Amino acid sequence: MKKLMSKFQFRSIYKTIVLTLILCFLYNIAYLFMSASDMNVYVRQSLEVGLSLLSSLGCYFICTRIWKKKNFSFQTIFKVLLLQAIYILIVSGILTNLVNICTKNMGLMLVLQLMSAFCLVVMVPFQLIFYYGLIHDKNLKEFIPMAIKKHQKSMLNWYCTLLICIIIFDTMTGGLFSAAQGFNAQSILVGSMYMGNPMMSWMMYLFLGVSFSSTLASMFTYLFMNFLMGFFYCILELNYVSYVGSLLDAD
């Protein structure tokens, strides 16, 4: 804990925090308006996939800012999009469809929940290792196994801690990843894929409130609380990215 807290930073990344919040805001506006439209379900799903792919480029860009190194070649961007496409296939194409098919089979549902929990824990740390390798122009076939073998314990421990904190705070404040109705790893995994950015909770509630003609005065306390929580999540998540970079820099 002391080692991690000694690396906790705010002043050195405040510009990146602002950029992250702006990107989240733009993504959420597009996602919320798309979700509220009455367009064809297949068109909506296609747009949802497109937004998720674009979000991966935004995440990669933020990583270059935190790690202070850029690599935006065509090949690199293609690999970023390819990894996100594989993640979408796993989450939406395989796990979600299997869950919908096996809702009445408790044994299979338990297996699928465990698989979803595993993906929830490992996907982001692996993604950061992958991005680090791309940004620093590493040989991915050699770098990724080495980084996983050497740093998986530290990276997974702190990422699990981050996830638990978000779930606990969202449960207390009624956020999107609240476990008040029970822990559903598959649902949280899907939510994190398409709505897992720090600004989504308050913007979604604002959007819903305006749609139902609620006044800003009546929503202010709840929106302000969720905005502060989102800002706090943003700082934690960017510090985790920085922490991963410091681990890999030491190799």
Describe the structure.
Helices cover 81% and strands 0% of the residues. It has 251 residues and is an all-alpha fold. The model has no long low-confidence stretch (mean pLDDT 90).
Question: Gist?
Answer:
The protein has 251 residues and is mostly helical. It has nine helices and no strands.
Strand content: under 5%
What gyration radius follows from the Cα positions, in whole Å? 19 Å
Oligomeric grouping of the chains: single chain
Overall pLDDT? 90
SSE ordering: HHHHHHHHH
The biggest sheet amounts to: none
Task: Please identify the structural class as seen in this structure.
Answer: mainly alpha
Overall morphology: globular
Number of helices: 9
User: How many angstroms does the end-to-end distance come to?
Assistant: 21 Å
Task: Indicate the low-confidence ranges by residue numbers.
Answer: none
Estimated helix fraction: over 70%
> What is the strand tally?
0
Protein traits:
251 residues; mainly alpha; 9 helices; globular
Q: Which helices and strands appear, and what pairs or packs with what?
A:
Blueprint: H1 2-6, H2 14-36, H3 41-67, H4 74-101, H5 106-135, H6 140-173, H7 185-195, H8 200-211, H9 216-249
